Amino acid sequence: MIRILLLIIAITVDSFIYMLEAGATTRNLCLRDVFTHSLIFGVTSSLMFSLGLNLGDSIFSNGLELLHKFVSSMTLFIICFSIIYSTLKKPNFIEKYNANFNYKVSLRFALLSSFDVFSMGISLSSFNFEYHKLILLMFIVTFIAVFIALLVGYYQGAAYQKSIGFCGALIYFIIANYQLYIYFFS
C-alpha cells in the first residue's frame, strides 16, 4: 500500500507545481476558492483514474498479466522521463499577478494534467486492490496537494518547483525499478 500511496503522491506533482504557481500569482485568494480549485482537481483526477483502472482491467484481463506488468513498469519509466524532461525545459518562474486564473482555467489544466493519472490507472489495474479505495485515495491526495499548494504559493511564493518535479520523477524511477525486480526477477 505504501508503493501505491507514493505513486499517487508522485502523480500529483504536476498539479502541485501548477497550483503553487497559481497561488503565487493570485491577488486575493479566499478559502472558498482554495476549496473549489482543490475539488476541481480532486474530482477530475478521480474520474480519469477510474477510467484508466477500468480500461486497464478490460484490456489486460484475459491472460495478459505478464504483458500488463511489463506495460505498467514501462509506463512508470515513461512518466518519470517525461517529468525530468519537462522540468529541465521549464523556464524560471516569475511571480507576477495573473488576472486570468479562474475555475475554468483550473478545470482545463486539471484535464490536461490528468493524462498521466489516466495512464497510471491503466498501470495500477494490475495491482490487487479494491478500485473504490484507490479512487478515494487519489481524490484525497490530489485534493490535499492542491489545497496545500495554493495556500503555500499564496503566502510563501512559488519556490522549489524544479526540486519538487525531480522528487516526483525519482519516486517514479524507484518504484518502476522495484516493480521490474518483483515482477521479473524474484
Number of beta strands: 0
Low-confidence stretches: none
Order of helices and strands: HHHHHHHH
**What is the number of helical segments per DSSP (H or I, 4+ residues)?**
8
Averaged pLDDT = 86
For the CA atoms, what is the radius of gyration? Answer: 17 Å
The biggest beta sheet is recorded as: none
Query: Helix fraction?
Result: over 70%
- Note the gap between the termini: 19 Å
Give an overview of the whole structure.
With 186 residues, this protein is mainly alpha-helical. The chain has helices at 2-11, 13-24, 31-59, 65-89, 103-112, 115-124, 131-156, 161-185. The model has no long low-confidence stretch (mean pLDDT 86).
Topology of this structure?
Elements: H1 2-11, H2 13-24, H3 31-59, H4 65-89, H5 103-112, H6 115-124, H7 131-156, H8 161-185
Helix pairs in contact: 1-7, 1-8, 2-7, 2-8, 3-5, 3-6, 3-7, 4-6, 4-8
Please sum up the structure shown.
With 186 residues, the protein is mainly alpha-helical. It has helices at 2-11, 13-24, 31-59, 65-89, 103-112, 115-124, 131-156, 161-185.
Annotation keywords:
single chain; 186 residues; mainly alpha; 79% helix; globular
